[in-house]
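tokens incoming
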């Protein structure tokens, strides 16, 4: 731990400046190159919880579980680049998506996006601290409480001074360590557990669904909900948006395609630990499947490889936790202070950096409190995910359709969320007429999700065809059936209600928005910088450094 966090702190000190730049603190000035950007995007989304969840999916659903988890999670990253190019075109110097929504609509849409990301990032921080604390409690003489405090202090120390610049540069080192660990650890555990013969000797431990590569259980409980969620995370999450605004505009496609491959391969590989445990007949310690990964490591790895495994997990949670800290700092700096307190023209960059650093300290303290208490964060996480799902169509439409209004945006999100909650938590009896109504909306949601994916890559005409055909084709099978899967059904209902509301209210509006105004209302908070004499570590060639 000392070596890992000490090395990260050393990197942060090496790139620190006597006078930090507010825009650099939030997005690295929007000039970060391909290698560091791709590594940062990959590392940010390979977080400890995703590793644990992929292994849990493998243990629960068999070999198709990690594939559903990793493949659709990777698709989320891939979907960013077609929409990301449009977002950067209309707002080339923005810092947050919420900031762009403020320029496009006003305060209510900005606060919806900013608020959901504050909750989501604090929950993510908490989850990562819990994962790290549990690992330390299981593999070291230290307690869970000592573990979460040590990890929180290590992450805060190297992120606090240089903000986003420190986050992306340490991500580069962390992703190399994680990928190297995965390449070594998974084969070692596989052969230590029995090698290829395990698939024959352990087949009796699997149910027919777990042994089926095309398992319907895995698809409807893991794959389909993830397909519905990928757009929500791609569009609504500030940690992704921050990297979108940081990378050089001409490198967006290459960066996110590379991150897609890196994330998918790593997470599917880690998920195979759960599959190996399933075939080997391993029972999770204390009946908790979250213990599978450290349990498999402790069982099959020697001291040296166990240290490598430890670095892999600590690296995964650190790369995501520092991204959450910088995302929260950007929201308070740009959205709260920069636009709502001081105003764009009167914001003081030095005050902004101070606010960002205070935000990080408060966020870590809040995450430590939640991690150390017995609070259930799952319901909050579900709520945030639903809000992002309800935001997807209004956000995307706001970048392409000049008639979308603030009323259409806000009403779509509120009604989408209101429709999601009773379906997801079964507050109404879905076995009768309400179930059919829910299924109709969920079936429409299938067309909405696939139509928006098609729109990103192929445009409006193809999107309308795909959305219409998939809705009509799935209706005979989905209506009367989907309500039996409340997680999937609730997400699809949120998409469809939000989309229909936004479209109807937009069609009633007549005022057209000039997208050129977004460039004027967003942009740098610092004065135009002067040419530096020393090369920037984030751009060693110096081509983009000013």
């Amino acid at each position: 731990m000392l070596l890992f966090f000490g090395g990260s702190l050393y990197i942060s000190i090496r790139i620190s400046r006597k006078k930090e730049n507010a825009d650099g603190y939030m997005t690295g000035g929007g000039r970060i190159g391909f290698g560091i950007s791709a590594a940062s995007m990959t590392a940010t989304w390979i977080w400890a919880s995703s590793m644990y969840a992929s292994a849990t999916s493998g243990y629960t659903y068999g070999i198709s579980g990690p594939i559903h988890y990793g493949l659709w999670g990777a698709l989320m990253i891939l979907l960013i680049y077609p929409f990301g190019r449009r977002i950067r075109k209309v707002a080339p110097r923005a810092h947050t998506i919420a900031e762009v929504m403020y320029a496009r609509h006003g305060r209510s849409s900005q606060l919806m996006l900013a608020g959901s990301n504050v909750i989501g990032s604090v929950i993510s921080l908490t989850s990562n601290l819990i994962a790290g604390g549990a690992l330390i409690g299981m593999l070291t003489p230290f307690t869970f409480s000592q573990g979460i405090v040590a990890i929180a202090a290590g992450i805060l120390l190297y992120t606090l001074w240089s903000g986003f610049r420190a986050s992306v540069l340490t991500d580069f080192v962390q992703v190399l360590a994680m990928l190297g660990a995965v390449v070594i650890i998974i084969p070692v555990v596989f052969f230590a557990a029995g090698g290829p013969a395990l698939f024959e000797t352990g087949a009796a431990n699997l149910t027919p669904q777990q042994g089926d590569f095309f398992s319907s259980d895995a698809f409807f409980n893991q794959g389909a909900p993830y397909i519905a969620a990928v757009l929500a995370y791609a569009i609504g999450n500030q940690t992704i948006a921050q990297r979108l605004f940081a990378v050089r505009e001409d490198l967006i496609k290459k960066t996110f395609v590379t991150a897609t491959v890196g994330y998918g391969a790593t997470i599917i590989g880690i998920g195979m630990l759960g599959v190996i445990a399933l075939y080997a007949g391993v029972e999770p310690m204390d009946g908790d499947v979250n213990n599978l990964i450290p349990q498999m490591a402790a069982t099959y790895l020697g001291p040296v490889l166990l240290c490598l495994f430890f670095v892999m997990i600590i690296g995964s949670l650190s790369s995501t936790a520092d991204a959450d800290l910088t995302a929260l700092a950007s929201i308070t700096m740009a959205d709260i202070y920069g636009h709502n307190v001081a105003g764009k023209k009167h914001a003081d960059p030095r005050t902004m950096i101070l606010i960002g650093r205070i935000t990080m300290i408060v966020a870590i303290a809040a995450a430590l409190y939640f991690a150390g208490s017995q609070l259930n964060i799952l319901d909050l996480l579900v709520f945030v995910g639903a809000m992002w799902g309800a935001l997807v169509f209004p956000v995307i439409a706001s970048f392409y359709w000049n008639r979308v209004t603030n009323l259409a945006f806000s009403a779509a999100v509120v009604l989408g969320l209101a429709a999601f909650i009773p379906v997801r938590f079964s507050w109404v009896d879905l076995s009768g007429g309400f179930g059919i109504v829910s299924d109709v909306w969920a079936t429409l949601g299938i067309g909405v999700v696939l139509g928006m994916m098609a729109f990103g890559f192929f445009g409006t005409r193809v999107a309308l065809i795909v959305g219409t055909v998939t809705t009509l084709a799935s209706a005979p099978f989905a209506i009367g059936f989907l309500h039996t899967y409340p997680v999937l059904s609730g997400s699809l209902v949120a998409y469809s209600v939000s989309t229909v509301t936004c479209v109807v209210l937009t069609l009633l509006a007549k005022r057209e928005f000039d997208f050129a105004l977004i460039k004027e209302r967003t942009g740098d908070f610092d004065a135009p910088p002067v040419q530096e004499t020393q090369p920037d570590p984030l751009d060693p060639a110096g081509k983009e450094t000013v």
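note: Residues 303-341 form the longest helix (39 residues).
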